[in-house]
Amino acid sequence: MEKAWWRSRMWTATATAVVILLPSFALLGYMESEHALLSQTSSVLEGIVSSSYGYAAGALPTSGGGATAVGPVQDLIARLRERTRLALASSADEPYSEEEQQIWAVRNPCVARDALPARYKRRTFAQDPAPNAAWARVFHEYSNLHRACTRRIGNLSRAFYSDASDAVPPGCQFVIGESYTGLGNKMLVLASTLMYAVLTGRVLLAPANTLIPAVFCEPFEGSSWRVDDDGMTNLKAGGPWTEVAGSFGWVDEQAAENVSRLLTRVKVHNGWQPVNRFYCDSEQAFLSQVPWMQIGACLHFLPRLFAVPKFRPVMEALFPDRMALTHLLRSALLPSDAVWERVLNVDEVYLEHTERQIGVQVRYFDQRIRDRINSRVGDCCLENDLLPAVQPFPSPAAATNANQSAPTTANVRTARSGHQHSRITKVFIASLLPDVHDYLNQRYLRQRTVGEVAVGLVQLTHESSQRTGVEVDSEALVEMLCLSFSDHLLVTPQSTFGGVAQAYGALKPWFINYDRDPSIPPSVNCQRGQSVDVCYQGGPRGYDCKHDPGLKGHNLFDDLPYLQPCLGIDTSGIQIITSHDSL
C-alpha cells in the first residue's frame, strides 16, 4: 500500500485494487439413521420425509417465528448432538480435552472473532443487529459435530475413495464444493452451503485450492475444514462423482433396493447452483443416504433454502429478522490474523477518527459510462445528505475585499478554527480503477464544503483488472471489511463484492443506477436497497418437485412473504427481505 498524503482538508490514499476468485464448498446432510433404506415406492419415500421432519412430503409448514419457534431450534440441536454422540461412540479417542483446547486456541487465535463486533458497534449512524443467541448455540453444537467427525475419520482422502461400508463413521456425512468465480461469489456460496450443512448435519470442508483456508480463520473449534486432495474437488465430468441427474433418476424409478445400491459421492449442482430438484423434500430424503456430496456453484442460493418445506420452520426460528447471511459471515467467515492486521492498519491510519464513513464500491462494466457513473455517485451522496454540498473558493480579489470589511462571526471562519471544529466524513472507495476517486477528489479538493464537514477519500488499490492469488484475495477481503465498517454504502448492481460488504456490515445499500432497468429514468442517480441480504441471481421462483404434490403450482412469493423479487435497479432474482434497518 502506498503512503497516503494530506491535501487541503482531504486525505487520499492510492494503491492497487484486487478482487479474487475463491471457491466455496459446503456439506449437507440429514439426521436419519444411516441404516435407513431409500424408499421403493412413493408412499415409503413420503414416510421417510414425514417421520424425519414431522409433516408429509411436500407439505408447506406455516410461516412463523418468535416464541413458537423455539421447538425447531431445540430439535436441530438435539439432532446435531445425536450425530456427535454416534461419531464419538465409535471412537477410542479421548474426548476433546482442556489441554487440546488450549493448544488449538494458540495455533488458531483468530483475533477478529472478538474484535470484529466491537468495530461495528463503533459506527456513529449505522445500527448493528443484536447478537443471535439461538444461532450461537446451534453453531456451537455444529462445531462439536465437525470436530468429532474430522477427528474420527482421520485421513479424508482414504475415506473418500473407499467404497467400504464403514469408511465413514456413524453420524458423519460430508459435502465438498468448488467454484471458479470471484471472492464475493465464493464467500456467498460458502455461506449458503454452510447453512445447508448445519441444517442437515453434514461436515463442511473447504479445499485448499480455493484459497479459502489461507485467507480465513478455521471456524470450527478443534477441527479443520481444509481439504488438500485436489482429486476430491474436481468439478469436471467423470472421476469419482456421480452427476445429480443420474442420482435423482433413482428417485423417479424408485429403484433403490438396499443400502448397498445407494450412491456414495454425488454432485448436486449444474455448475452455477444446485439443481432445482435439490430443493424438494423427496430428493433431500434421498440425498440423506449419500455420505459425500459436492456443491459447485457461483450463486448465492441461501434465500432458496427458506423455501424448502423441511428447512423452513427451523430457519424462521433461527432468524426471525431474516438476517441469516450476516450471522453466517460473522461467525464462520472471519479473516485470518494476517488479513485482520492489515484491516486494523487501514482502519487506524485512515478511518478511525471520523464522525461518518461512506463506502463506495464501483465496477465499470462499460468504459463509455465512466463519467456518468462517477457523477451519479457524487449526486447520490448529495441528495441523500451523505456528503456535503460544495462551493468555489473565493477568488484572490474577492478575498482581499472581504478582508478589508469588518468581519462577523456569521460570515468568517479562519482556517485554524475551521480545522478545530470541522466534523470529518471519510469515503472509502473500492474499485479496480481510480476514476470515482479522482472525480470526488476534484469536487472536494478544489472546492470548499458548505457547513462544518471536512471530507477525506481513501482508495487502497486500482489494479485495472481482476486477478487471482492469496495476496489478491487477502487485499480483496481487507477492502470488503473496510467497506462494511461504513455507516452508508453505495454499491454496483449485481456485484457480489459489494454484496458481501453490505451483509458483513448489516447495511441496506444504495444501488448506483447503471441504466439496466428501463422503468427507472436516467434522472435517478441511485435507489435504496430493500434488504441487507444479497440477491440470488436468477433463482427459481417455483418448485420442480414431482414427488411432492403439495408443492405443485406454488409460487415462492405467495408462500413466503419475506421472499421477494430483487430490485430492478439491481438484477433479476430472489431476495430475502430482512427486517433490520441499518439507519
Automatic annotation (TrEMBL):
EC numbers for this chain: 2.4.1.-
Segments for region (Disordered): 397-418
UniProt xrefs under InterPro entries: XG_FTase
Root EC class: transferase
Membrane topology listed for this record: Single-pass type II membrane protein
GO terms, molecular function: galactoside 2-alpha-L-fucosyltransferase activity
Transmembrane segments: none
Compositionally biased residues, Polar residues: 398-414
Keyword Transferase tagged: yes
Main location, first listed in the record: Golgi
UniProt-listed GO biological process terms: cell wall biogenesis; cell wall organization; xyloglucan biosynthetic process
Annotated compartments: Golgi apparatus, Golgi stack membrane
Record carries keyword Cell wall biogenesis/degradation: yes
Gene Ontology CC: Golgi cisterna membrane
Membership in a protein family: Belongs to the glycosyltransferase 37 family.
Role noted for this protein: May be involved in cell wall biosynthesis.
Protein name (Swiss-Prot/TrEMBL): Fucosyltransferase
Organism: Marchantia polymorpha
